[in-house]
Amino acid sequence: MGIRSPQGRCMRKLLIGFAVVATVALSPASEARTPDYVVSALARPVQVKHDIGVASWYGEKFQGSPTASGEPYDMNRLTCANRELPLGTRIRVTNLQNNRFVVLRINDRGPVIPSRLLDVSKAAARSLGFVGAGLATVRMEIVPPASFSIPSIPPATKRIAF
Question: What pTM value is reported for the model?
Fold first, then answer.
């Protein structure tokens, strides 16, 4: 499949589009405006570090309060509190009762209750399906920073129109 063939041109367009999306999503300046779910779609869990325990959620009472990372708590973002992992770490959390999962960013310290593994935002609890119950048994897995390897593309002999 050469670059001059229709399939090659299509593949080149896909790779260039992917490179643009990856560059924007991973640039430091875009971190603040990149929605959590976009980064979550690009993330892959690592099986090396995982833990199972009880998660609870916190919401309205703490809305707008500063978190350990310095940012204000937003119950509508996909974030959580953990005592041990570094702030900014992304984790995949799976509700073991219904197998629903979500990728969260650690931005706070907690939970205060020693027997609990995580405190998640209300949005995360909603995604995991335990807002009404208040607690859920979950598995937590560290998600590595996304690393992309864009294959090199030989220069085209013709100009490609997008």
Answer: 0.62
Q: Is the pLDDT of residue 42 over 60?
A: no
- Residue 149 placed within a domain: no
Query: 48 and 26: one domain?
Result: no
Q: In sequence order, which residues have a C-beta less than 8 Å from that of residue 105 and are 6 or more positions away?
A: 36, 78, 79, 80, 88, 89, 90
The 3-state DSSP class for residue 43 equals coil
Q: Count the neighbouring beta carbons within 10 Å of the beta carbon of residue 54.
A: 14
Q: Tell me, yes or no, whether 124 lies in a domain.
A: yes
**CA-CA-CA-CA torsion sign (155, 27, 88, 78):** negative
Task: Give a yes or no: residue 24 inside a domain.
Answer: yes
Question: pLDDT per residue over 28-37, tens digit each?
Answer: 444 444 444 4
Domain count across the chain: 2
How high does pLDDT run on average in the chain?
Answer: 77
